[in-house]
Automatic annotation (TrEMBL):
<keyword id="KW-0812">Transmembrane</keyword>
<feature type="domain" description="Histidine kinase">
    <location>
        <begin position="357"/>
        <end position="569"/>
    </location>
</feature>
<dbReference type="Pfam" id="PF13426">
    <property type="entry name" value="PAS_9"/>
</dbReference>
<feature type="domain" description="PAC">
    <location>
        <begin position="159"/>
        <end position="211"/>
    </location>
</feature>
<keyword id="KW-0472">Membrane</keyword>
<dbReference type="Pfam" id="PF02518">
    <property type="entry name" value="HATPase_c"/>
</dbReference>
<feature type="domain" description="PAS">
    <location>
        <begin position="83"/>
        <end position="155"/>
    </location>
</feature>
<keyword id="KW-0597">Phosphoprotein</keyword>
<feature type="domain" description="PAS">
    <location>
        <begin position="204"/>
        <end position="284"/>
    </location>
</feature>
<protein>
    <recommendedName>
        <fullName>histidine kinase</fullName>
        <ecNumber>2.7.13.3</ecNumber>
    </recommendedName>
</protein>
<dbReference type="InterPro" id="IPR001610">
    <property type="entry name" value="PAC"/>
</dbReference>
<keyword id="KW-0418">Kinase</keyword>
<dbReference type="InterPro" id="IPR013655">
    <property type="entry name" value="PAS_fold_3"/>
</dbReference>
<feature type="transmembrane region" description="Helical">
    <location>
        <begin position="9"/>
        <end position="30"/>
    </location>
</feature>
<dbReference type="InterPro" id="IPR052162">
    <property type="entry name" value="Sensor_kinase/Photoreceptor"/>
</dbReference>
<dbReference type="InterPro" id="IPR036890">
    <property type="entry name" value="HATPase_C_sf"/>
</dbReference>
<keyword id="KW-0808">Transferase</keyword>
């Protein structure tokens, strides 16, 4: 195939020859001297071929140049294509948002990162710096703009800054923006290319670490961090201590860093506790001990000492964190508490023994007195004053006997905190109680309502529950109102495993504002009744609590009283 210049030259020669022949024919037909036309025709042919050769030479030269230029353009295009491919690969690999800003035209282009990272579609992205700056957080915009334009004016090549960039959904992300400035031959800034990196997670982690650092620094507990391992059989060396540690131990951080916590060990330190710590370190487990530690000036103090292992993302032990508390005062209070408990225990034993001895020693002479008084009843006494004295003496002796019996009951209750329980029929219990109080019930004729069908059986101590109900019913009759008929309501309900036994009357009531904290006290009396001893409610509460229950009271003066007893059934 002929080259393009030769084809053009051949076409030129053919056309020129055709025109020369045509002109020659016209001249032969219309000119007067035909012999000169052949010479002119030959001359034209020679001229045509000569110019054709020159024309071919010029075209060949131009074609060589064009081929060279074309090859260079192809090579340049391939380089540009390869560069663009590398650019796209790098952009994808780094997940950065690349931007290209032509400063003079104020024209910015963005890569796909603006959509992948910030959620903006290409049609929503502006092509000027205004769109870019409008998306920067208002608190960061002025600072960033001033810094950027100052950088451009100074004509330094590299720039970077951190700011918050608004996403398509309205939220902000922390970004790190790096830029590179391109200048013309006169040093004028014409173009800037940059990459925006999302550092939101790094910023959040940085803020979290700052918060943790603040907590550690401000903590009242002593905190120290050690290396992961030790080669000399000691606790690993310290790499950090907080201010609270320096305050507690007296050591400044620069004095103790690089040391092992073994330096706090002294003559009275617990060696077994130290072995426990070393074993936990060997097994990479958390441990907690209490031991005596020594400050910089060799003063002893009790410390609660924990060692917590810290593992990195690969599960390898990196450090130990130790949290220490000065528990010297706590230990001192514990010793005082133990001493007081021992004293109270001994006092209780002494009082119990005293109660047993007193009740035993009083019972014998009291029985003799009761016997003598019974004998005197059969002796006629004419002196009325002597009879009155003997009646008072008999009554006092009888009350003393009842008091001693009640005290014995209290001692028995307190001495037997766990009583044997059985399934008891509440109906049978009330029958026994009513039987014992038949005289009082017949005399005062109270209206008594029982609702026991929801709890027919109760797991309790039969003697205690009879005593409790007997005392409460006796009190209701004793402290009835003289202005209205006595009404007594007793109900039993069960919710889950808890039984509620409610005992209500419309008697004279108790002033709980004045006596609320004394209702169940020993020998507490709230009414001026001559035969009131103030022991019944104390016995009731003691018996209820011995059986694992609770008792509360609700009362209002001249309206009545309610006792609510709860048991686990």
């Amino acid at each position: 195939m002929k080259s393009k210049p030769k084809q053009i030259t051949l076409i030129y020669i053919i056309i020129s020859l055709f025109m020369a022949v045509l002109c020659h024919k016209l001249l032969v037909c219309y000119a007067l001297k035909a012999e000169f036309f052949y010479l002119s025709f030959i001359k034209d042919i020679i001229y045509i071929f000569f110019t054709g050769v020159v024309f071919n030479y010029i075209l060949s030269k131009n074609e060589s140049k064009n081929i060279s230029i074309l090859k260079k353009m192809q090579l340049t295009n391939e380089e540009i294509k390869e560069s663009n491919e590398k650019y796209d690969i790098v952009a994808k690999a780094t997940s950065d948002t690349i931007w290209d800003w032509r400063i003079q035209e104020d024209y910015i282009t963005w890569n796909k990162g603006i959509e992948n990272v910030f959620g903006y579609k290409q049609e929503d992205v502006g092509m000027t710096s205004k769109w870019w700056f409008d998306k920067i957080h208002p608190e960061d915009s002025i600072r960033m703009s001033v810094k950027l334009y100052s950088f451009i004016e100074q004509k330094t090549e590299k720039w970077q800054d951190q700011y918050r960039f608004r996403c398509a959904d309205g939220n902000y992300k922390y970004v790190l923006d790096r830029g590179f400035l391109l200048k013309d031959e006169n040093g004028k800034a014409i173009r800037m290319i940059g990459a925006i990196q999302d550092i939101t997670k790094q910023k959040e982690e940085e803020q979290r670490l700052k918060l943790l650092e603040t907590v550690i620094i401000q903590s009242k507990d002593s905190i120290l961090i050690t290396e992961a391992n030790s080669t000399d059989g000691k606790i690993p060396r310290i790499v950090y201590v907080n201010p609270a540690f320096s305050k507690m131990s007296g050591y400044e951080s620069d004095e103790i860093l690089g040391q092992s916590p073994n330096v706090f060990k002294g003559p009275n330190s617990d060696s077994e506790a130290l072995k426990k710590v070393l074993k936990a370190i060997k097994e990479e487990k958390e441990c907690l001990i209490e031991t005596i530690s020594y400050s910089k000036d060799k003063q002893e103090y009790w410390v609660r000492f924990s060692m917590i292992p810290i593992f990195n993302s690969e599960g390898i032990l990196s450090h130990w964190i130790s949290i220490q508390q000065d528990i010297t005062e706590e230990r001192k209070l514990e010793k005082e508490k133990e001493h007081l408990i021992r004293e109270l225990t001994q006092n209780n034993k002494d009082l119990k023994q005293f109660s047993y001895i007193t009740s035993h020693n009083l019972r014998a002479p009291l029985s003799n007195l009761m016997g003598l008084l019974n004998l005197i009843e059969y002796i006629p006494i004419d002196n009325p004053e002597l009879q009155e004295i003997l009646n008072g003496f008999y009554k006092s002796t009888y009350l003393l006997n009842e008091t001693i019996n009640d005290l014995v009951k209290v001692i028995i209750i307190k001495d037997n905190p766990s009583m044997q329980k059985e399934m008891v029929s509440l109906s049978e219990v009330f029958e026994n109680v009513f039987s014992q109080l038949s005289f009082q019930i017949e005399t005062h004729k109270p209206i008594i309502k029982l609702k026991l069908d929801k709890v027919p059986l109760l797991n309790t101590n039969k003697a205690y529950i009879e005593s409790i109900l007997l005392n409460l019913l006796t009190n209701s009759i004793k402290y009835k109102s003289e202005n209205r008929k006595l009404k007594i309501s007793i109900t039993a309900e069960q919710v889950d495993q808890t039984v509620f036994l409610t005992f209500t009357d419309n008697g004279i009531g108790i002033d709980l504002e004045r006596n609320g904290d004394k209702v169940f006290g020993l020998y507490q009396r709230f009414h001026n009744y001559p035969d009131s001893k103030g022991l019944g409610l104390y016995l009731v509460k003691s018996q209820v609590e011995t059986m694992g229950g609770t008792i509360t009271v609700e009362s209002e003066v001249n309206k009545g009283t309610s006792f609510i007893i709860t048991f686990k059934n």
